[in-house]
Prior knowledge:
Blueprint: H1 2-26, H2 29-50, H3 55-76, H4 85-110, H5 115-138
Amino acid sequence: MGEYASSDAAAALARAQELSSMVRKRTAWYVRYQVVYGCAAGLLVLVIGLVKAPFGPAIGSGGWAATIAALSVYAARQPVARRGFGRWHGILIGTWALLYSAVLWLGLVFFRGDASWWVPGAVVVSLPGLIGGYLEARK
């Protein structure tokens, strides 16, 4: 009977490792999500800050709404999310929101149309997505 139990345990362990590998591969979508999010955030901050009003804010806001809608549909269609996804995603969005708000508010009040503010600001706003994508790819 001990031999039977050890073969069951070995089979269960092999199956667990197989499932873990499959889940790890199937959660790679979130790396792409974060990189697209980061790039779109940076690009749309540049549009909002450097294209004259009302076109810059209108195009930037509309582009951002379309990006979020597309990314939301993409995320909803994924079959697997790794453990801790909700917390990690909340940190990404929260960090981005703080940076985005600061860059936009200061930029629109004090640096309207000034590329020396908006280019570094766009880089800063894109960092949560890009760093998050890098860290997620390493997991």
